[in-house]
Amino acid sequence: MKKILQYGLTILGVAAIVLWQTGYNPFASKTEAEVVSPNVFKEMKKQTESDGKRIALIGTFSVSNSDITINLGQPTSLMFEDENNNHIDFFKVWNGNGKNEFSLPTTFTPKDLKVYDNEGKEHRYNEKIKISFTLKRIKEAEPEKDPNTGEYAWEWEQLRIDPLK
């Protein structure tokens, strides 16, 4: 009986790992993230009530012409811009060719950037996409609120990249 229980729990554990690796999350919210404008996003960063909200932005990822450092085991900060190429913010994205990742060759220009959406489909540097994420306020930041902009310190959790429909 003990062996059957061990095998059953092992199979259950392996199944859970496989499902999570393929993007299945039974605890994920089924509601669509609200698309907000860059100006609304900027205002949301000034309000503590934004903590935990899931929102989406429309735009493109971009990189500068200069070299960027890609650290193994850590995401890389990419610029996200609106349709007029105005900087919105930096978002951390993993380097790779999988879902919600980006890739660049060793030497590159901004036109070499490839972004992969939540289904693994490739998007070029100038293709508009939708990113959604959950706002999480960094309460231990020093200072917690930027005195120049009035914005609190934030990080973005559960970043998801989707094609623009």
Structure overview:
This protein is of the alpha+beta class. The chain has one domain: Beta Barrel (OB fold (Dihydrolipoamide Acetyltransferase, E2P)). 16% of the residues lie in helices and 33% in strands. The protein has 2 helices and 9 strands; from the N terminus they run αβαββββββββ. The protein has helices at 2-21, 38-44, and strands spanning 34-35, 54-62, 76-81, 87-95, 101-103, 114-116, 122-124, 129-137, 154-163. Strands 1, 2, 3, 4, 5, 6, 7, 8 and 9 form a 9-stranded mixed β-sheet that branches. A hairpin with a 5-residue loop joins strand 3 (76-81) and strand 4. The longest helix has 20 residues, at 2-21. The model has no long low-confidence stretch (mean pLDDT 86).
Instruction: Give the number of domains.
Output: 1
Quaternary state of this entry equals: single chain
Q: What about the largest sheet? A: 9 strands, mixed
Helix content: 10-25%
| CATH class wording | Mainly Beta
Overall body shape: globular
CATH topology: OB fold (Dihydrolipoamide Acetyltransferase, E2P)
Class per helix and strand makeup: alpha+beta
Q: Work out the helix count.
A: 2
Residue fraction in strands? 25-35%
Key features?
165 residues; alpha+beta; OB fold (Dihydrolipoamide Acetyltransferase, E2P); globular
Précis, in short:
This protein is an alpha+beta fold and 165 residues long. The chain contains 2 helices and 9 strands; from the N terminus they run αβαββββββββ. It has one domain: OB fold (Dihydrolipoamide Acetyltransferase, E2P) (Beta Barrel).
SSE topology sketch:
Blueprint: H1 2-21, E1 34-35, H2 38-44, E2 54-62, E3 76-81, E4 87-95, E5 101-103, E6 114-116, E7 122-124, E8 129-137, E9 154-163
